[in-house]
Amino acid sequence: MSTSTVNAGLDRAQYGRDWEEWHRAHEEHRADALGFLAITGLHWLTASPIDLPDAPGRWTTGAEGPVVELDDGEELLLDGETIRGRRALGPLAERGGLTLRFADGDVAGAIEVARRGGHDIVRPRRSDHPFLADYPGTPTYVPNPRWRVAARYIPFDEPQRTEVGSAVDGLQHVYEAPGRLEFELHGETFTLVAFPGKTPGSLSVLFTDATSGLTTYAANRSLSVPAPDETGATVVDFNRAVNLPCAYTDFATCPLPPAGNRLPVGIEAGEKTPLGRVHAADAPAAPA
User: Fold this and answer.
1) Taking the chain, what is the end-to-end CA distance rounded to the nearest angstrom?
2) b (16+ CB within 10 A) / e for 261-277
3) Is 14 helix (H, G, I), strand (E, B) or coil?
4) pLDDT of residue 286
5) Residue 14 and residue 59 in one domain
6) Number of structural domains, the chain?
7) Which PANTHER family match (predicted)?
8) Which of 85, 90, 174, 186 could be a cystine partner for 65, CB 3.0 to 4.6 Å?
9) Tens place of pLDDT for every residue, the chain, 288 residues?
10) Domain boundary residue among 87, 110, 134?
11) Cβ neighbours for 69, distance < 8 A, ≥ 6 positions apart
12) Which of 201, 200, 245 is nearest to 222 (CA)?
């Protein structure tokens, strides 16, 4: 299947409307009152208790997994259950986590408890975060079907353990890559290592390109790819390349692309560098 075949008969006006609807929904999800734009801090848990400046609890981690101790009058909500006093949350799976909710007067809050790169973390979120209120939206390239290309999925004999860096110094992520995608741009053939996607059979790609650090975010962009058919055929639509949370906040632990996913051509499609960012002057590094 060629790119010309993929785009044959494509209604460009409808394609543009579909893209606008998709990106509007993506922005609405991103700017949810307790979404990642509402994160107020990143805290690495150890055996030494820490108090959160903007959320309830005293937090540690150990053999019982993350543990929270709440003072009198403090409470958290976990899956509909009210938690008071001390609660061990149990060991977390890598890239797993849970969310506890709280209220501070009229302000809604949440605490993300997660495991990233072998470390337990907590990230409070508050609906009154100033960045959330001031978020100006994310600029994009004008969608153009020329960046919607045919691709062939080539599975590995066995999933390959792939270690990648992180937006946080010293942190490493490990994924099982099931295969790679091969496609053509400007008469050249390129490949991208793919990770499992969010829906069965779909794929996820992390990449940079020649626009990275110029018009697009320097560290990474992400792209969802539909499940290939029985011949391995699928479509890579770079118009739907999006920023990960680390493009917006220093309190993110996003993975970086695998070494082979740094394209030498400019992908002038998808989301550009955000207009605003949450900076943490003393953002903590991952513990050794």
Assistant:
1) 48
2) bebeeebbbbbbbbeee
3) helix
4) 57
5) no
6) 2
7) DUF1684 DOMAIN-CONTAINING PROTEIN
8) 90
9) 677 678 888 999 999 999 999 999 999 999 999 999 999 999 999 999 999 999 999 999 999 999 999 999 999 999 999 999 999 999 999 999 999 999 999 999 999 999 999 999 999 999 999 999 999 999 999 999 999 999 999 999 999 999 999 999 889 999 999 999 999 998 999 999 999 999 999 999 999 999 999 999 999 999 999 999 999 999 999 999 999 999 999 999 999 999 999 999 999 999 999 999 998 864 445 565
10) 134
11) 49, 57, 58, 59, 85, 86
12) 245
CA 208 to chain centre: 15
Are residues 61 and 166 located together in one domain of the fold?
Answer: no
Query: How much is the pLDDT for 7?
Result: 87
Which structural domain range is residue 16 located in? 3-31+138-261
Q: Residue 165 domain-assigned?
A: yes
Q: What are the CA-CA distances from residue 240 to residues 178, 193, 243 (Å)?
A: 22, 18, 10
29: its two tokens: 């999800």
What is d(CA 222, CA 245) in angstroms, rounded to the nearest whole number? Answer: 11
C-beta separation of 269 from 242 below 8 A: no
State whether 18 and 124 are in the same domain. no
**Domain boundary pick from 100, 134, 168:** 134
**Which of 285, 284, 221 is closest to 248 using CA atoms?**
221
Judge if 182 and 80 occupy the same domain: no
Tokens read off for 166: 């992180």
143 and 250 co-located in one domain: yes
Residue 236 shares a structural domain with residue 254: yes
